[in-house]
Structure formats: C-alpha cells, structure tokens
Amino acid sequence: MLVIRQSVLRAPVGTPRTRSDQVRHLKEVSGLPHVTIRVIPDAVGLTGALYFPFSLFTPAGDRPKTVYVETLTDGLLVDEESRISHYEAVFEELLEVSEVIDSFDG
C-alpha cells in the first residue's frame, strides 16, 4: 500500500521526462491486484507523517514487524515494539484521512 500526499503528485521534481516516467510507473502498479494507492487530499493539512517517509513491514507468520525510516542523510531500521507502535498509530491516521484511488491519473 502506498499513501501519498496529493501535493506530492503535482510537485515539479526532476525533469519532465522523470516526472512522466514516475506517473507512468504509478499507473502501471496501481492496476496490480495487490497494490493499493491512497492519496491524502491537500485539504487535510498536516499529518503525523510530515517530516520523514517511513515503511512499515509486517511479515507473515510470527516474524517481527520492522519500520524503515528515511532521514536526510540515511535510513533507520526500527525493531523495538514500543517504538513501532508509534508508527502504526501514524499509519492508521494516514489511512483515516486518505482516499483510495481506483484508477491513477496522476
């Protein structure tokens, strides 16, 4: 699942070719049965995931959850359950304020 801010989809990043390639890729993966793209509308304002992107990994079975946080200079793996719960709460907030995109038009 990808949760992304609406403003990010419109931000001019890189060359026009780069942006076009990124939008094309999102269109392709949005059609896959195991992929869900959710967009946080601009009207929502700030969320708990404002500063650094993170990925929450929840493997099958009894394997422990892990969070990967991107920072300005590197990445951080979080595996302490008490800290992971904070990221889970932020992710739940993002799910509540975002909308599912059935077909991605960029």
In short:
It holds the Pfam family DUF5753. Residues 3-98 form the DUF5753 domain. With 106 residues, the protein is α+β, with helices and mostly antiparallel strands.
Percent of residues in beta strands: 15-25%
Shape: globular
Oligomeric description of these chains: single chain
In terms of structural class, how would the helical and strand content be classed?
A: alpha+beta
The number of domains is 1
Total strands: the figure is 6
Work out the helicity level. 25-40%
Element order: H for helix, E for strand: EHHEEEEHE
- Secondary structure tally, helices: 3
Distance between the first and last residues' Cα: 17 Å
Tell me about the largest β-sheet.
3 strands, mixed
User: What Rg do the Cα atoms give?
Assistant: 15 Å
- Unreliable segments of 5+ consecutive residues: none
Give the neighbour order of strands across the main sheet: 1-2-6
How confident overall, as mean pLDDT?
88
What labels describe this entry?
106 residues, 35% helix, 3-stranded mixed β-sheet, alpha+beta, 3-stranded antiparallel β-sheet, DUF5753, DUF5753 domain-containing protein
Provide structural commentary.
35% of the residues lie in helices and 23% in strands. It has one domain. The mean pLDDT is 88. The protein is an alpha+beta fold. It has helices at 6-10, 16-30, 81-97, and strands at residues 2-5, 37-40, 54-57, 66-70, 75-78, 99-101. A hairpin with an 8-residue loop joins strand 3 (54-57) and strand 4 (66-70). The strands form two sheets. It has a three-stranded mixed beta sheet with strand order 1-2-6. It has a three-stranded antiparallel beta sheet with strand order 3-4-5, covered by helices on one side. The chain is globular. This is DUF5753 domain-containing protein.
